[in-house]
Amino acid sequence: MRLLLILLLLPVLAGCATRPVVPVRPVHGVAITTLQGGVAISLESTAGSTGGRGYLFFRAPDTFRLSILSPFGQTFLDLFVSGERVTCLVPEKKQAWQGTMADLPESLGARVWPLLQWVVEPPHPAGPARERSFPRPDGTVEKVYYDGEGFVQRKVNAFGDEVLFGDYRVTGDVAVPWSMEVRTAGGDRLKLLFDEPEVNTPLDDELLKPSMGGMEIFPLARFRGP
Questions:
Q1: pTM flag (> 0.85)
Q2: Tens digits of per-residue pLDDT, 152-173?
Q3: What CATH number is given to the structural domain containing 121?
Q4: Is position 158 within any domain?
Q5: 181 Cβ partners below 8 Å, 6+ apart?
């Protein structure tokens, strides 16, 4: 699974607030190798809803860590994903759950996270039309919707799952959507709002490895919440 947020290269804006802004046009095909920063998360599923603020650490192609903080700034839920391998920690209880993506319970977004490989694929170039259809490797067709400047606003797959992108901002020289919302055909919803993300900067290996010392370990399929 590749957790990357979609994305388009923009030339550096010339001038400052007191000088005219030079118009910019998106250029497609720029890869994001790492992404890290603060994030607000909201997850709704058939098992209920959860949310909070925390941090996301991502490394291409398929490794990420999502740490959700308590109101007092302590980590109360730590989710690590590397390919199909998933580890979920509740540090306060010294408990850990391990398994694969197929073992994810509804309370952890079982229908949402597997879609991220599709969500974060590099976008198809915009064309004259703001709505375009593209074939998928599995023989299905997806629809992609663009704004007037060529940024992807929404895409929908053949099964009715969709993702919405918004609030594009230039981070370095990459235009990143600071808002992303995934909606599954089954009604689950994941919304991520980023805060000052860093793109393509060095990411310490240790940040992506769960610390299992002193943890009591359980099968991921048995997880029912922190």
A1: no
A2: 999 999 999 999 999 988 877 7
A3: 2.50.20
A4: no
A5: 163, 164, 189, 190, 191, 192
